[in-house]
Amino acid sequence: MNIAANSLEHHWMPFTANRAFKSDPRLVVKSEGVHLWDHRGGQLLDGSSGLFCVAAGHGRTEIADAVHAQLQTNDYMSPFASGTPGSFELARKLAAILPEGIDHVFFVNSGSEAVDTALKVAMAYNRARGEGQRIRFVSRERAYHGVNIGGVSLSGMVKNRETFPVVMPNVVLMRHTWSPNERFVRGQPEGGAELAEDLQRMIDAYGASTIGACIVEPIAGSTGILVPPKGYLERLREICDTYGILLIFDEVICGFGRTGKAFASQSFGVTPDIMTMAKALTNGAQPMGAVAVSDKVYDTIVDAAPENAIEFFHGYTYSGHPAACAAGIATLDIYENEKLFERAAALSDYFLDKMFELQDIDLITDIRGYGLLAGIDLAPGAAPGLRGSEVQTRLFWNGLHVKFTGDCGIIAPPLVAERSHVDEICSIIRKTLEETGH
Ligand SMILES: Cc1ncc(COP(=O)(O)O)c(C=O)c1O
Questions:
Q1: What range does the record give for the signal peptide (predicted)?
Q2: Fold match between 18-56+339-436 and 63-337?
Q3: Distance between Cα 74 and ligand 1 center (Å)
Q4: In angstroms, rounded to a whole number, what is the distance separating the alpha carbons of residues 193 and 365?
Q5: Given this model, what pLDDT does residue 290 score?
Q6: CA-to-CA distance for 373 and 301, rounded, in angstroms?
Q7: Structure confidence at residue 322 (pLDDT)
Q8: Is 220 in the pocket of ligand 1 (CB under 6 A)?
Q9: What's the half-sphere exposure (Cβ side, CA atoms, 13 Å) at 148?
Q10: Which of 144, 216, 225 to probe ligand 1 with, by most ligand atoms within 8 A of CB?
């Protein structure tokens, strides 16, 4: 494919160095299985499942066919006070794989919308139970909860918030769980559970009765795969229970087999009150997110409203869009029929072995990993993030797509990947970092 001069100017790309990209574009024009093809005809391995979405591999005809058939049968209907069958079916299928007691699903169109919706669910729940003064949210340093105003308010990543100072008030941050003493630790670090006591400190400082919810990613994903220390999530749950604070897990990256079970909540044995999800919900084939809530949260909000009155004044034009629901249903069928969550669990050991073999490379300063997720920190260059973007570009032209956040590469192959693909990911990373040098 030829790219004419200036023909890329009109699209303002998200989270992209637009000038640099447009002077040296990297477009993907085809995808199938674990592979991508760039506009020059080169083949790449997809080392990050797109952006952690494409768990079942690219080009799944079952999903495309389901979306096509749905659009031909019924392309759209208002989701407010009317409905289409697909959203109910998808919600039932999700409830079957969600942790026990989390049985109600609210549909949105992205992870960011899921986070903002979860915050509103927490506010509505607290108000419905007569605790409307619980206006504070506890989040965490290095958290990524999307880019809408609610999610940015919760964010613990400075670049994502410093340009946007006008965000929601009353958000306080716990410390993150990465420790320089726990480098190259595979799986859950032994130390660090005491960091959950930061929640107790917030309670001691602000008063439990002012805190509505505590939100964390079970594994902090976008910031570079910070795996929770042993006992950490359990302790957060305990403190929330003691003080009547809702626990929200943001499972936008962790959900759908990435940790070896349907959700990280199940992998770590800790059940939140509210869960957000998106990305692999439709295998990336349609934009969709969702918020799943416990029976207690749902019943409290719904039962508090008078008969025939709307209980929750929230929703999007495209909540539960028929095409997205069709994609979601077909995706969950693939996960089940091909036992992809079990497959991820089975591949995890091999994947982590191979990732941690990279630790002899000078440029790598830390590796973390769990399930089919690994974060690889590189020694920064002249300024934070420069090395990351240089390496990301070199990897691409060497045949590997990897998502970078600053100087951290995040590896998350599709759950259908074979061991040979993992080997290839590692050898391209090694070769590229050797070429890069210090
Ligand atoms: C944990 C988490 N929450 C929310 C989001 C936002 O999702 P989206 O980009 O679909 O809005 C992301 C995206 O990476 C995420 O990782």
A1: none
A2: no
A3: 29
A4: 23
A5: 99
A6: 36
A7: 98
A8: no
A9: 14
A10: 144
Q: What pLDDT is attached to residue 166?
A: 84
Domain ranges in the chain are: 18-56+339-436, 63-337
Ligand 1 pocket test target in 15, 115, 405 with most atoms within 8 Å of CB: 115
110 CB near ligand 1 (under 6 Å):
yes
pTM over the 0.90 mark:
yes
Domain 18-56+339-436 fold is Aspartate Aminotransferase, domain 1 (3.90.1150)
Distance in Å, CA 278 to ligand 1 centroid: 7
- Token digits of residue 290: 């969702």
- Tell me if 17 sits within 8 A of 389, measured CB to CB: yes
Q: Which residues of the chain have pLDDT under 50?
A: none
Please state which architecture CATH assigns to domain 63-337: 3-Layer(aba) Sandwich (3.40)
For residue 305, count other CB atoms closer than 10 A to its CB.
13
Q: How far is the CA of 252 from the centre of ligand 1 (A)?
A: 6
Ligand 1 and 217: CB distance under 6 A = yes
